Structure formats: structure tokens, C-alpha cells
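ESCALATION

Customer reports they have been waiting on this structure for their group meeting. Please prioritize. Original submission:
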Amino acid sequence: MSGNKVLMDRAWGAVDEIFHYDAADDVSTIQIKQDVEPIIEANKREQAAGDGYSRAGRWLRKVARIPLVVAERWMREDGINWMALPKAEKNAYLRRKLMDPDNRNLNTTEKPAWDRAKAPSERTTPGGLIIPPGVGYG
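Update from on-call: job pushed to the front of the queue and completed.
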């Protein structure tokens, strides 16, 4: 007898975890599903709307929104938990992933901070992100 049961339904991002059991083979699997289309469409709207800086000031900039199933796929394909990497390595890893043309719809800005020339008064993080003048980092 086979059975499927939804284990968890998260409201944000519509992530479903579905438990599958095949009694004939005595194999259990968990399927993770997410409708990424609303996230991609929101990213496209944000790309068209501006440069990603917060409205309160230019000290915070969102460069991407990554669906949970994509983040998990990256970890599985690359064989690493990139979320547990040291900050510099994580930034370099994400920069590499987000600069990949196949992932362009994950970006929320047309030109991410690492995709433009650094002004003389700007600094960069170890991962290559540009820090605007007057902004602390650490």
C-alpha cells in the first residue's frame, strides 16, 4: 500500500513537503514543491522598478530573492551547505550563482552591486559586494 501525506505547508512561498511511502519497496521519500512563478514575477517587477536600495536610504540594497527549492537544489547539486559557509565564501558563492545567466530572474536589480564598476570612494566585501561610502560593514 502506498501513501502520500503533506507534512508541512508554509504560507510564504507556498512550499509543500509531501511524504511518499512505497510499501512494496519499503522506501520513503519527501518531495518538496514550491510554486516559484510568483517569486520570479516579483523579482522582474523589482528589476524594472529601481536599483534595489531601500526607500529609507541607500544603506540597504536587496539584490536577489531566491526560492527555497532553488537554494536546496544548489546545495544538493554542489554538495555543500552554502548557508553554513563563512561570510566571504558565501558571498563569493552567491555572486557566482547569481551572475549565471540561467539565474538572472533571481536578481531583484537590473545591475547587482557586483556587476558594476566600483567608484573610487567605495569599498568591497571579501565576497566582492560593493559597499557605498559612509556604510559600515562587518
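Sent to customer with the following note: The helical segments are 37-49, 68-78, 87-99.
Escalation resolved.
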